[in-house]
Write a structure and sequence with these properties.
Elements lengths: L7 E4 L2 E5 L4 H44 L3 H31 L8 E4 H13 L6 E6 L4 E4 L1 H17 L6 E9 L2 E8 L33 H11 L3 E7 L3 E9 L6
Parallel strand pairs: 4-6
Antiparallel strand pairs: 1-2, 3-5, 6-7, 7-9, 8-9
The structure holds adenosine-5'-diphosphate.
Adenosine-5'-diphosphate (ADP) binds next to helix 4 and helix 5.
Length: 260
């Protein structure tokens, strides 16, 4: 729509409706698109060298371990862990550009929801010695969804629970079936979120600011990506939290009919 084509609806000399857009919005949209394009290209270009560094680090680590050079192998393992962090950050940036341009794709299959949650939990338990991931499952059956994307959401919630509970060690992961929805919750006993910030944590780039939070690294993208994934899979995501006591992040996905 251009202004020249736009026709105002006039009633008693007052404009009651106006079809069209104004130039400011066009410019804003164009700027946003340029930002998204840049982010997409930059993260894509970063991915290639990082993948290659990872491959070399793994080969080097294996060589050093074989040669009995445990100290050096340990240093390479730390490099590898940092490369993994970089890979995850780049992955998040790529996902955001995909979400914002409507290109996030889903590869749906039938899978056992509890089993997927358990697998993700077990993988993450290996990454932390301090925190205990406790399962409190009830039978949920199978769901039709993108298993990798759902694992990504659970990973995000559990890594946040670990990150934001530096002084407590228990994290409870529960599942249940209610009103035709498979529900998973991740509960921590960490720093919690102030009441007036709770709704904003799902926004893109939003991070709670304050003394307690400023030491935690992050881009403020994980919850945005997670909630968009769940939304696009027909579900919903929410949080209950008490500042200083802990948070419980949950998501619910529809359990559709009978298994095909
Ligand atoms: P990031 O952790 O990279 O900042 P997220 O999108 O995952 O990004 O989270 C957004 C913000 O929500 C965080 O910066 C933090 O302030 C808050 N937050 C998320 N998870 C928790 C949690 N389990 N406990 C307390 N605060 C949390």
């Amino acid at each position: 729509w251009h202004l020249a084509q736009a026709l105002p609806f006039v009633n008693d000399g007052k404009i009651v409706k106006w079809f069209g857009t104004n130039t400011d919005i066009d410019e804003q949209k164009q700027l946003q698109r340029q930002k998204d394009d840049f982010l997409g290209i930059a993260s894509h270009e970063l991915k290639t060298p990082v993948t290659s560094i990872k491959a070399y680090a793994q080969v080097l680590g294996a060589m050093l371990t074989r040669e009995g050079e445990t100290k050096k192998a340990e240093m390479v393992a730390r490099m590898d862990a940092q490369v993994n962090r970089l890979t995850n950050l780049i992955g998040d940036l790529l996902d955001v550009t995909k979400i914002n341009s409507g290109r996030l794709q889903f590869n749906k299959v039938w899978f056992d929801f509890n089993q997927a949650v358990k697998e993700t939990m077990d993988d993450l338990q290996h990454t932390t010695k301090k925190h205990k991931l406790v399962a409190d499952f009830t039978e949920t059956g199978h769901i039709y969804s993108d298993k990798d994307r759902i694992s990504q959401v659970i990973t995000n919630l559990i890594t946040n629970a670990i990150k934001y509970s530096p002084h407590t060690d228990q994290i409870i992961i529960s599942t249940r079936l209610k009103n035709n929805e498979a529900i998973a919750c991740v509960q921590d006993f960490g720093i919690g979120i102030p009441d007036n910030k709770k709704d904003r944590v799902f926004e893109q780039f939003y991070r709670v600011s304050g003394d307690k939070q400023h030491t935690f690294p992050g881009l403020g993208l994980g919850l945005y990506i997670s909630s968009e994934i769940i939304k696009r899979e027909g579900g919903r995501m929410w949080v209950n939290s008490v500042e200083g006591k802990g948070s419980t992040f949950c998501f619910a996905l529809p359990v559709e009919g009978n298994e095909q």
